[in-house]
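Sample entry (175 residues):
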Amino acid sequence: MKSPLCSSLLKAALLIVPLALCFGGSTVAKAGGKDPLSPGPVRPGNLDYQTELPQGYLRVYSATDQFDDGGVLYYAHSSYSIYTTDGKFFKNVENHISRSDEIPTLVMLPTGSYTIEARSESRGYVRVPTVITAGRRTVVDPDNEQTDIQKRLTRTKHSRRPVDQRLMSRAQAPS
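Predicted structure, serialized as C-alpha cells:
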C-alpha cells in the first residue's frame, strides 16, 4: 500500500504540472496586436500577391523531353521563364512534378502582361507575349503562338502601307 506522503506528493504533482503547462507553456499571439515587440505579418514588398491582387492562370505547352522509365516512355514538358513587360525576370516554372509527369503545370499569376520564354519543339527558344486575365486560364503553345504572332506582324506590316503603294506594287508586278 502507498504511504500517505507518497500519495500527497503524487496528487500535488498532478495538480502543479497541468497548471504550469497551462500558464507557462506556449502563448497565443493575435494578428494585428498592439505589442511593439511583434513584427506583424512579413511580406515581400508589403504585398501578398495571393490575396491582394486579382489572379489568373497560365499553362504553357513547352517542348517535351523524353524519359525512359524501364521501357515506358514519358514526355515531360520543359521548364520556362516568365518576365515582366519591361524585361525583368519574374519566375521560373519547372513545368512538371516529376520526369514521368506529362501534364504541364498550371501556374497562378497576378493579372497583367508578361513575356514567356519557352523552348519550342521546332524553333528553339521563343518569347511569347501573354496577358493574364483575372479568373481565366491562359494557354500558351510556343509552336502555334509563334506562327500566330508572325501572321499578325505580317498583316500589320502590309496594312501600314498607303493604299496607292499597294495598288502600284500590284500594277508593276509581271503577269
